[in-house]
Design a protein that fits this description.
This protein is mostly helical and 248 residues long. Helices cover 74% and strands 0% of the residues. It is built from eleven helices and no strands. Helix 4 (45-69) packs antiparallel against helix 9 (170-194), helix 5 (75-93) packs parallel to helix 7 and helix 6 packs antiparallel against helix 11 (228-247). It is a multi-pass membrane protein.
Length: 248
Amino acid sequence: MLAGELIQSPLLLILLLLVAFLYASVGHGGASGYLALMSLFAFPVTYMKPTALVLNILVSAISFYFYYREKKFERKLFYPFAITSIPFSFLGGSLTIETHIYKIILATVLLFAVGRLVGILGKQKGELKPINIPLALFIGAVIGFLSGLIGIGGGIILSPVILLLGWADIKKSAAVSALFILVNSVSGLFGFVSKGGILPISSLSLIAVVLVGGILGGYFGSKKMNVQMLRNVLALVLLIAIFKLYTT
């Protein structure tokens, strides 16, 4: 079945809406979720990366807007990560890796997503610490390269790291992650296109679905909302995708 026919699946569209909503609610773009769904529905790997980046740009921009409006964004926490992540995301986006290696890396990253969704990763520390600039620069470079390589924004990794190191609370880490995802996704997409990559036209039909989910998730997530049950359901979907990626 062609990708253009796959995106007409009602189940896929419903799951995409749920992914956009839940990820935007915690300041993420949802690329790891979109990639997991596309893997489950047997999309071609060549279609997955650019499509996830495009959808990521839209949802992370919406999510950042709502968190910024609620005055949760701290520039001094964002810049050290972005300085190194943007060029490395471009580099990663310009590279093409073999399908089986791509699947292994993606499955490993999805484990972070599952941990974040069920609350294992990303628990807020009681006492906050000043950001360590050299360490933040290094973290930004590593996450940026990985983001561009497989087509994610990197927030699903950055957010737990910020919380683990005690550099920000949950809301502020979400705001920083949202903008981090946006700039990395744009950079990774430019890297992809610079090497002759083509954006699949059929992916444009998914924009309306993720826009609705992103707007609702960003609005409610920037305020007070607890949707842990839905996050657990999404975590189960991701686990199924991880199993498929590791075994095919």
